[in-house]
Design brief:
- By secondary structure, this protein is an alpha/beta fold.
- The chain has three helices and six strands, in the order ααββββββα.
- The chain has a five-stranded mixed beta barrel.
- A hairpin with a 2-residue loop joins strand 5 (85-94) and strand 6.
- The longest helix has 18 residues, at 2-19.
Length: 137
């Protein structure tokens, strides 16, 4: 069990350090979710990672790491090409829609399956990981 916890921590640290160097403290205060976790976070700010299906500038459909498709609405235009991996900071409206606040295009070699496995394990063993929702959210 301990080796598995170390492995999951290592994967989460790798993705956090490699892909999210800027604005780390702000992002860490939000829950990282996949589609199956959205219902637990309605009204809260979250971080969701997925692949862009369509993008009209202010409305984007993304397939999250667990292959759930959601609609994300942004106030400002976002430039992410279909097929690219993105990280979206958003407030959950309902189980299929998010109000986007920020969008980052990730590296072409981002592994969505590994990321999904890491956040599922982190949720399952949440007492071993420290993630807090900020009081202002």
């Amino acid at each position: 069990k301990q080796w598995y916890q170390r492995r999951v921590r290592g994967v989460l640290n790798y993705y956090t350090n490699y892909y999210y160097k800027s604005n780390l403290s702000k992002m860490e205060s939000k829950a990282r979710v996949n589609g199956s976790m959205l219902a637990d976070h309605v009204g809260q700010e979250v971080v969701a990672v997925g692949k862009v299906v369509t993008n009209t500038g202010t409305n984007m459909k993304i397939e999250l790491s667990d292959e759930t498709t959601v609609s994300v609405t942004f106030v400002d235009t976002t430039e992410a090409l279909p097929g690219s991996a993105v990280e979206v900071n958003a407030r959950v409206s309902d189980t299929r829609s998010l109000d986007g606040m920020a969008c980052r295009v990730l590296s072409d070699d981002f592994d969505l399956k590994m990321y999904d496995e890491a956040i599922v394990v982190a949720k399952r063993y949440s007492n071993h990981f420290t993630t807090t929702q900020s009081a202002s959210a």
